[in-house]
Design goal:
The chain is α/β, with parallel strands linked by helices and 301 residues long. The protein is 37% helix and 25% strand. The chain folds into 2 domains: 229 residues, Rossmann fold; 47 residues, no CATH class.
Length: 301
């Protein structure tokens, strides 16, 4: 960790310590852990009986039930297993925006810190975590692993990322969904700018594969309240040639109206597809924002 000191701070670790992110749905895994699995095995929670068939392990026979019924039945259990989590980090140009109220952090910086916290958290509870960084296409794909040293691999990759090219999120999400073979937990860190209908079709690709999807939508405060008052030159972070000098006073009302329409449409789409949408604003301390969300998530389970 010494080589990437700015990615995950000791304060973040302290704040997140003891919290556990529990997946809401049945997920697949390999090791005994904290999450339900469709696999049956030896565990603490009984599921059902089924008739014995030749070849079944004799140790699974319920002999007490045999004594009552004179029939052989197998006791089946739901084993507890770990989550396979993949963290997706948007490294497109729009994530490079840095306002004046975010302690010098761009949206990309904030996403990187959030990804670091989530990765640490998943590995702390013995879950496996992988990483995908992307802009126009997939930059880097690190498959999920649960080994402690895997964290340094992820942190080093996160620390080396810079916001860059433009992106079509829908196209990239389809690419990523095709790469993640085993169902699990998909966490997306992005400003999610794009056509909402196309985004929903792409996100549905994850849901059709029975992944649980959580989107952490990263906002700068400037994007939410449009605080500009004087004539301002706006430049595209994904296409620097696009620059416009405008009077913000004439745009503010229309901008905020369009923003609300976009957010409402996105919220409805996520709800329809059973996708969790978590807004994060870059002037919120990263670990505090995650801790607040985790507390709510645990209460509604």
């Amino acid at each position: 960790m010494a080589s990437v000191p700015n990615v995950l701070s000791a304060g973040d670790v302290s704040r997140l310590s003891g919290l556990q992110l529990l997946a809401k749905q049945v997920v697949e895994g390999f090791a005994s852990g904290l999450h339900r699995s469709p696999h049956k095995g030896f565990s603490v929670e009984f599921r059902e009986h089924r008739p014995y068939v030749p070849g079944d392990d004799l140790r699974t026979i319920d002999w007490k039930l045999f004594g009552k019924t004179d029939r052989l039945y197998i006791r089946e259990y739901e084993e507890e297993t770990n989550v396979r989590c993949t963290v997706l980090v948007d490294c497109s140009g729009s994530m490079g925006y840095r306002g004046t109220r975010s302690d010098g952090l761009s949206k990309h910086d904030y996403a990187i810190r959030t990804a670091a916290c989530l990765s640490w958290l998943m590995l702390q509870q013995q879950d496996s975590v992988g990483l995908v960084t992307f802009d126009t296409s997939i930059r880097r794909y690190i498959p999920p692993r649960a080994r402690p040293r895997h964290l340094k691999h992820i942190m080093t990759e996160l620390a080396g990322q810079k916001p860059g090219a433009e992106t079509s999120l829908a196209d990239v999400f389809h690419q990523i969904a095709a790469r993640i073979q085993r169902r699990g937990l998909v966490m997306i860190l992005s400003d999610l700018f794009g056509d909402v209908d196309q985004l929903m079709k792409a996100l549905a690709h994850f849901r059709h594969a029975r992944h649980e999807v959580i989107i952490f939508q990263i906002w700068d405060p400037d994007e939410l309240d449009f605080p500009f008052r004087q004539w301002t030159q706006f430049a595209s972070l994904e296409n620097p040639a696009q620059r416009h000098l405008v009077d913000p006073a004439q745009l503010r009302k229309a901008y905020l109206q369009k923003l609300q329409e976009y957010r409402d449409q996105l919220t409805r789409g996520c709800s329809r597809n059973r996708i969790t949408l978590v807004p994060l604003v870059t002037n919120q301390p990263t670990a505090d924002a995650l801790a607040a969300w985790l507390a709510i998530r645990r209460r509604v389970r």
